[in-house]
Amino acid sequence: MSLALDPATQDLLFREARTANTFTDEPVTDEQVRAIYDLVKYGPTAFNQSPLRVTLVRSAEARERLLPHMAEGNRPKTASAPLVAILCADNEFHEELPALFPHFPQAKDVFFAERPVRENAAALNAALQAAYFIVGVRAAGLAAGPMTGFDFEGVRKEFLDDDHTPLMIVNIGRPGPDAWFPRSPRLEFEQVVSVV
What we know:
Layout: H1 7-15, H2 30-40, E1 52-57, H3 60-66, H4 75-80, E2 83-90, H5 97-100, H6 107-110, H7 115-139, E3 143-147, H8 152-159, E4 164-173, H9 189-192
Antiparallel strand pairs: 1-2, 2-4, 3-4
Helix pairs in contact: 1-7, 2-7
């Protein structure tokens, strides 16, 4: 059985897509970011909770606030990327459930009244959305450089609040010179999939 996507699209989204480490100075427009969101917002989450929140770092001032929180090896690429996105989980996502899950608006209180339950659900489902976001960046013909090498608490205090948990930072733009590290190996099908 073959895939529904043509091979060029498969390559764009997966086979040839790589984590970019350098970028050109071509800007990433608001229209591109909106198109990415308008595509990836349809990715599934439990109870349609959609807890991902995105802070876009565009200004030189904001970037200067972010760079000290990046791991040393990640600073140059974050400094040069035309756009940087801080992806986080909204631990108060349940406040939106009456609108997002209208056929059972009570889910807000029945399942998510307790903060630890919300934090676990938000972390898992926002991570799913973060993966959709990366694929969306690729679908826009851009390169993504997702990273977890940063001071999570520092970024939270600098850009977010106690109700938001940082997940990753994604540099976004057109790949620059020597943007790619060599491709690392992947597990084979038989190593991952078992049939019972």
